[in-house]
Amino acid sequence: MSYSAAELEQLNADLREKSPVEIAQWAVAQAKNPIVTTNFRPYEAAILFAATQAKPEIPVVWCDTGYNTPNTYRHAEEVIALLQLHIDLYVPQQTAAHRDVVMGIPQIDDPRHKVFTEQVKLEPFKRAMANHKPDVWFTNLRKGQTAHRDNLDILSQGADGVLKVSPFYYWSDAQLDTFLAEHNLPNEHKYFDPTKVLENRECGLHA
Hints:
By secondary structure, this protein is an alpha/beta fold. Helices cover about 40% and strands about 10% of the residues. The protein contains seven helices and six strands, in the order ααβαβαβααβββα. The protein has a six-stranded mixed beta sheet. A hairpin with a 5-residue loop joins β5 and β6 (about 165). α2 (about 20-30) packs across α3. It is globular and about 50 Å long. The two termini are about 20 Å apart. Mean pLDDT is about 90; it is low at about 200-205. InterPro entries: PAPS_reduct_dom, Rossmann-like_a/b/a_fold. Pathway: Sulfur metabolism; hydrogen sulfide biosynthesis; sulfite from sulfate. Belongs to the PAPS reductase family. CysH subfamily. This is Phosphoadenosine phosphosulfate reductase family protein.
């Protein structure tokens, strides 16, 4: 699947008027092998709901760093059961307990932070993408989250040709709160990403 810059611009303009579920349905209709990724951070139930409304059996890739809060794990279990998600779990090749002894969680200015990020987030993600080989990838990216994400749109295409679909790209937290309430979906704000440190820092998967 490949679109020119002009085609993407027109598609994004057309999809801007659609609901997130309609956007997901459009994307699934174009796809041969769609996936949705999640880390069960705040508002993730929204993208999981939209993707599974479009394709109930869609693979849900969960890359678990091993450093999630107890709240996040309880939230994940609740959403998995509620939406009957087809979870494919990917974890680092070294346990968090082992890493805590030899490295801990390095600060952002520590040279080991790059190695840490590769181990707990990038390597499991690359392994997941290599196994699934998706042509459409649903994410919950939104405008205003980071400087890099401000340059994307509902649809964006990476150098690998995978079409990244972010149905809630233009939505605010308030709009998402309403969406979750309307669909009786849970949310959880006690979330920790050990690779980002700063909330507005890019995590590495979307750069």
